[in-house]
Design brief:
The protein is α/β, with parallel strands linked by helices and about 240 residues long. It is built from six helices and ten strands, in the order βββαβααβαββββαβα. The protein has two domains: about 180 residues, Alpha-Beta Complex (Spore Coat Polysaccharide Biosynthesis Protein SpsA, Chain A), CATH 3.90.550.10; about 40 residues, no CATH class. Strand 7 and strand 8 form a beta hairpin. It starts with a strand and ends in a 6-residue tail after the last helix. The relative contact order is 0.19.
């Protein structure tokens, strides 16, 4: 296993779709506290830092055991700032204090149903393979081969491959080729790879599979309500 693993929890303020998203209540604690707890339960994360520009998020994260040693500069906290700048900023902050890491792992607040075991499984996958990076993936709950589109007359047609959906002998869902999608729950790479690509996606990126439920990503208000329905009030 690697010598040193840094977890970075990006938690920017100013969400437009869901105001104060990162500190909204989910179960019996704020959304960000679920990720802080998962990171604390990991057997491989040597250090986990919450990267935020927001004083309220900093306060809530610290109240629930999170480490917030700095506030992210304002120029790294706008809607259009790529995530890699947040990762590089955290690595540089630690490097300036004489601390180095072998692996950097981004663990977004917006996937609260992920587990510490999921995080550790992804780290083990990276460490035991020749992959340069690993991302969380989940199986599509509806096969994408069943996609339909609307033609110029307003009628539906099978978008990808005729015969996948409508004929009587169309394949059953369990017989359709299994396809996966990135779920945004976990993204990690060696620090060497990160410094070269400034991305978690290379031509040697592997997937670490999470059950669809655990890969649920909160982006819209209805997704927050869905997660609240799935998290019991005694979730601690």
């Amino acid at each position: 296993m690697p010598d040193r693993v840094l977890g970075v929890v990006p938690a920017r303020g100013g969400s437009s779709r869901i105001p104060e998203k990162n500190i909204q209540p989910v179960g019996d604690k704020p959304l960000i506290a679920h990720t802080v707890d998962q990171c604390s339960g990991s057997g491989y994360l040597d250090e986990t830092v919450v990267s935020t520009d927001d004083e309220a998020i900093k306060r809530v994260a610290e109240e629930h055991g999170g480490t917030v040693p700095f506030l992210r500069p304002a120029e790294l906290a706008t809607d259009d700032v790529p995530a890699h700048l947040c990762i590089s900023h955290a690595l540089d902050w630690y490097r300036s204090r004489g601390e180095s890491f072998d692996i950097v792992c981004m663990i977004p607040v917006t996937c609260p149903l992920r587990s510490a075991t999921d995080i550790d499984g992804a780290i083990e996958h990276l460490s035991s393979s020749d992959a340069e990076s690993v991302i969380g993936v989940s199986e599509y709950t509806t096969p994408p081969q069943w996609a339909v589109a609307t033609d110029e007359r307003g009628y539906l047609y099978e978008y990808y491959e005729p015969g996948q959906l409508w004929p009587d002998d169309a394949p059953r869902s369990q017989d359709v080729k299994k396809l996966l999608h990135p779920n945004g729950a976990i993204l990690l790479s060696s620090v060497t790879t990160w410094e070269e690509y400034k991305s978690f996606y290379t031509d040697r990126t592997a997937g670490s599979e999470l059950l669809p439920r655990r890969g649920t990503y909160i982006d819209e208000p209805w997704e927050l309500e869905l997660v609240r329905a799935l998290v019991p009030a005694d979730s601690s």
